[in-house]
Write a structure and sequence with these properties.
49% of the residues lie in helices and 5% in strands. The protein has 209 residues and is mainly alpha-helical. Keywords: Hydrolase, Metal-binding, Metalloprotease, Protease.
Protein backbone atom coordinates (compact mmCIF):
# COMPACT_ATOMS: atom_id res chain seq x y z
CA UNK A 1 0.00 0.00 0.00
CA UNK A 2 1.34 3.41 -0.90
CA UNK A 3 2.04 6.06 1.65
CA UNK A 4 -0.71 8.56 1.61
CA UNK A 5 -1.05 12.27 1.79
CA UNK A 6 -3.33 15.14 1.08
CA UNK A 7 -3.64 18.26 -0.69
CA UNK A 8 -1.63 21.36 -0.77
CA UNK A 9 -3.22 24.77 -1.31
CA UNK A 10 -1.06 25.36 -4.39
CA UNK A 11 -1.51 21.88 -5.81
CA UNK A 12 -3.17 21.51 -9.21
CA UNK A 13 -6.48 19.75 -9.46
CA UNK A 14 -6.28 16.00 -10.00
CA UNK A 15 -6.38 14.83 -13.58
CA UNK A 16 -9.79 13.56 -14.69
CA UNK A 17 -10.33 9.94 -13.74
CA UNK A 18 -10.02 7.57 -16.70
CA UNK A 19 -13.12 5.77 -17.84
CA UNK A 20 -13.57 2.41 -16.09
CA UNK A 21 -12.51 -0.44 -18.33
CA UNK A 22 -13.28 -3.58 -16.35
CA UNK A 23 -16.25 -4.96 -14.44
CA UNK A 24 -14.30 -4.51 -11.20
CA UNK A 25 -13.60 -0.86 -12.00
CA UNK A 26 -17.25 -0.22 -12.85
CA UNK A 27 -18.36 -1.82 -9.57
CA UNK A 28 -15.76 0.23 -7.70
CA UNK A 29 -17.03 3.44 -9.32
CA UNK A 30 -20.57 2.64 -8.20
CA UNK A 31 -19.30 2.11 -4.65
CA UNK A 32 -17.38 5.38 -4.85
CA UNK A 33 -20.39 7.33 -6.06
CA UNK A 34 -22.55 5.92 -3.27
CA UNK A 35 -19.94 6.64 -0.59
CA UNK A 36 -19.37 10.21 -1.75
CA UNK A 37 -23.10 10.85 -1.85
CA UNK A 38 -24.26 9.10 1.30
CA UNK A 39 -21.49 8.11 3.73
CA UNK A 40 -21.56 10.56 6.64
CA UNK A 41 -17.91 10.07 7.64
CA UNK A 42 -16.67 10.50 4.08
CA UNK A 43 -18.67 13.69 3.56
CA UNK A 44 -17.54 15.00 6.97
CA UNK A 45 -13.87 14.49 6.10
CA UNK A 46 -14.22 16.35 2.80
CA UNK A 47 -15.95 19.20 4.66
CA UNK A 48 -13.19 19.35 7.28
CA UNK A 49 -10.45 19.35 4.64
CA UNK A 50 -12.20 22.27 2.94
CA UNK A 51 -12.43 24.15 6.26
CA UNK A 52 -8.65 23.90 6.56
CA UNK A 53 -8.34 25.70 3.23
CA UNK A 54 -7.34 22.81 0.96
CA UNK A 55 -9.24 22.66 -2.31
CA UNK A 56 -9.50 19.11 -3.63
CA UNK A 57 -11.88 20.00 -6.43
CA UNK A 58 -14.69 17.58 -7.17
CA UNK A 59 -14.66 14.57 -4.81
CA UNK A 60 -15.63 12.43 -7.81
CA UNK A 61 -12.37 13.42 -9.50
CA UNK A 62 -10.31 13.27 -6.32
CA UNK A 63 -11.24 9.62 -5.68
CA UNK A 64 -10.66 7.25 -8.57
CA UNK A 65 -10.93 3.52 -9.07
CA UNK A 66 -8.25 1.61 -10.92
CA UNK A 67 -7.50 -2.01 -11.68
CA UNK A 68 -4.41 -3.67 -10.22
CA UNK A 69 -2.62 -3.07 -13.53
CA UNK A 70 -3.43 0.66 -13.48
CA UNK A 71 -2.70 1.27 -9.78
CA UNK A 72 1.07 1.55 -9.87
CA UNK A 73 3.87 -0.67 -8.54
CA UNK A 74 2.06 -1.63 -5.31
CA UNK A 75 -1.31 -2.27 -6.93
CA UNK A 76 -1.16 -5.98 -6.23
CA UNK A 77 -0.56 -5.40 -2.50
CA UNK A 78 -2.69 -2.41 -1.52
CA UNK A 79 -6.40 -1.70 -1.29
CA UNK A 80 -6.07 2.05 -1.54
CA UNK A 81 -3.50 4.81 -1.56
CA UNK A 82 -3.03 8.54 -1.49
CA UNK A 83 -0.67 10.31 -3.89
CA UNK A 84 2.22 11.61 -1.81
CA UNK A 85 3.86 14.97 -2.36
CA UNK A 86 7.45 13.86 -1.78
CA UNK A 87 9.00 16.73 -3.68
CA UNK A 88 9.98 14.62 -6.68
CA UNK A 89 7.10 15.62 -8.94
CA UNK A 90 7.17 18.74 -11.11
CA UNK A 91 3.41 19.02 -10.66
CA UNK A 92 1.84 17.36 -7.65
CA UNK A 93 -1.67 16.07 -8.29
CA UNK A 94 -3.26 14.92 -5.01
CA UNK A 95 -5.88 12.22 -5.00
CA UNK A 96 -7.02 8.86 -3.70
CA UNK A 97 -6.93 5.64 -5.69
CA UNK A 98 -8.85 2.50 -4.72
CA UNK A 99 -7.76 -0.79 -6.28
CA UNK A 100 -10.96 -2.13 -7.77
CA UNK A 101 -10.28 -5.85 -7.36
CA UNK A 102 -9.35 -5.40 -3.69
CA UNK A 103 -12.45 -3.43 -2.64
CA UNK A 104 -15.23 -5.88 -3.53
CA UNK A 105 -18.01 -4.47 -1.36
CA UNK A 106 -19.38 -1.36 0.33
CA UNK A 107 -17.81 -1.99 3.73
CA UNK A 108 -14.28 -2.54 2.44
CA UNK A 109 -14.51 0.37 0.03
CA UNK A 110 -15.75 2.83 2.64
CA UNK A 111 -13.20 1.83 5.29
CA UNK A 112 -10.46 2.21 2.70
CA UNK A 113 -11.72 5.59 1.58
CA UNK A 114 -11.95 6.93 5.14
CA UNK A 115 -8.39 5.67 5.81
CA UNK A 116 -7.04 7.55 2.81
CA UNK A 117 -9.05 10.69 3.56
CA UNK A 118 -7.58 10.80 7.07
CA UNK A 119 -4.19 10.92 5.36
CA UNK A 120 -5.51 13.74 3.18
CA UNK A 121 -6.73 15.62 6.24
CA UNK A 122 -3.36 15.19 7.95
CA UNK A 123 -1.42 16.44 4.94
CA UNK A 124 -3.63 19.50 4.73
CA UNK A 125 -3.49 20.18 8.47
CA UNK A 126 0.15 19.36 9.25
CA UNK A 127 2.00 19.24 5.91
CA UNK A 128 3.26 15.74 6.69
CA UNK A 129 6.86 14.96 5.76
CA UNK A 130 6.39 11.53 4.22
CA UNK A 131 10.15 10.93 4.19
CA UNK A 132 10.12 10.99 8.00
CA UNK A 133 9.47 7.62 9.62
CA UNK A 134 7.85 9.29 12.63
CA UNK A 135 5.49 11.37 10.49
CA UNK A 136 4.58 8.38 8.34
CA UNK A 137 3.96 6.20 11.41
CA UNK A 138 1.74 8.83 13.00
CA UNK A 139 -0.30 9.13 9.82
CA UNK A 140 -0.80 5.37 9.62
CA UNK A 141 -1.74 5.13 13.31
CA UNK A 142 -4.40 7.80 12.90
CA UNK A 143 -5.76 6.37 9.66
CA UNK A 144 -5.98 2.85 11.07
CA UNK A 145 -7.60 4.04 14.28
CA UNK A 146 -10.21 6.31 12.66
CA UNK A 147 -11.20 4.31 9.58
CA UNK A 148 -13.11 1.51 11.31
CA UNK A 149 -10.66 -1.15 10.11
CA UNK A 150 -9.89 -2.05 13.73
CA UNK A 151 -13.48 -2.51 14.86
CA UNK A 152 -13.91 -5.68 16.91
CA UNK A 153 -15.96 -7.30 14.15
CA UNK A 154 -13.11 -6.77 11.68
CA UNK A 155 -10.60 -8.36 14.03
CA UNK A 156 -12.85 -11.38 14.52
CA UNK A 157 -13.17 -11.70 10.73
CA UNK A 158 -9.36 -11.77 10.58
CA UNK A 159 -9.26 -14.54 13.18
CA UNK A 160 -7.85 -12.26 15.88
CA UNK A 161 -9.62 -12.75 19.19
CA UNK A 162 -9.35 -11.00 22.54
CA UNK A 163 -11.34 -8.11 23.96
CA UNK A 164 -8.66 -6.51 26.14
CA UNK A 165 -7.37 -3.35 24.42
CA UNK A 166 -8.08 -4.97 21.05
CA UNK A 167 -8.43 -1.65 19.22
CA UNK A 168 -5.04 -0.28 20.17
CA UNK A 169 -3.31 -3.58 19.46
CA UNK A 170 -4.92 -3.76 16.03
CA UNK A 171 -3.91 -0.18 15.22
CA UNK A 172 -0.29 -0.87 16.20
CA UNK A 173 -0.20 -3.99 14.04
CA UNK A 174 -1.82 -2.48 10.97
CA UNK A 175 0.22 0.74 11.13
CA UNK A 176 3.41 -1.33 11.29
CA UNK A 177 2.24 -3.42 8.33
CA UNK A 178 1.70 -0.26 6.29
CA UNK A 179 5.21 0.97 7.13
CA UNK A 180 6.70 -2.40 6.24
CA UNK A 181 4.91 -2.43 2.89
CA UNK A 182 6.34 1.02 2.20
CA UNK A 183 9.83 -0.33 2.87
CA UNK A 184 10.42 1.28 6.27
CA UNK A 185 13.09 -0.26 8.48
CA UNK A 186 12.03 -1.31 12.01
CA UNK A 187 8.33 -0.55 11.47
CA UNK A 188 7.17 -1.82 14.89
CA UNK A 189 9.71 0.30 16.77
CA UNK A 190 8.85 3.35 14.66
CA UNK A 191 5.16 2.94 15.46
CA UNK A 192 5.82 2.36 19.16
CA UNK A 193 7.85 5.57 19.43
CA UNK A 194 4.93 7.82 18.47
CA UNK A 195 1.94 5.62 19.26
CA UNK A 196 0.47 7.19 22.40
CA UNK A 197 0.43 10.75 21.08
CA UNK A 198 -0.85 9.87 17.63
CA UNK A 199 -3.45 7.36 18.82
CA UNK A 200 -4.89 9.99 21.18
CA UNK A 201 -5.32 12.48 18.31
CA UNK A 202 -8.74 11.78 16.82
CA UNK A 203 -9.19 15.03 14.85
CA UNK A 204 -11.39 15.88 13.09
CA UNK A 205 -13.58 13.34 14.90
CA UNK A 206 -14.42 13.61 18.59
CA UNK A 207 -13.48 10.01 19.37
CA UNK A 208 -12.44 6.70 17.86
CA UNK A 209 -15.25 4.95 15.96
Amino acid sequence: RRSTTTTDDAAPAPAPAPEPETAAERRCCRLRDAALSRNVRVRFLFDEIAKLGCDVGSPFGFVRCASVERSGPLGDKMVGGFAVNDGSQKRYAPGVVVVAEHAPDKAVFERTLVHELVHAYDQCRAKVDWKSGAHHACAEIRASSLSGECDLSQEINRGVFGLMAHHGKCVRRRAALSLALAGRAEPEATVDAVFDRCYADTAPFERHP
